[in-house]
Amino acid sequence: MGGGSNFVIERMTDVAARELDLDPLKFETKFDIGPTISLCDSTGNSTTAGNYQAVLQMALDMFDYEVGVLSRKPARAEGRHIGMDLSAVRSVCF
Length: 94
Hints:
4 helices; mainly alpha; 94 residues
């Protein structure tokens, strides 16, 4: 299914987090499958075992996520929008 389905899944994740008034990062990590589980979802995407939390932490260390979150509100008040996205790319099951 590829990129299109991943975009939809990630967008739905963002919408769900917003509806539940949760930070998207916290919402995403709440449902982390852990390093030893592999699964295939209904779209045909597979998520294989891996240490996704370590990779996510490396990305967060490179980009100060909390500063980004805090800078959005004042920017929006000035009519500017700051976008941030976190996503996990999945591969198609065969």
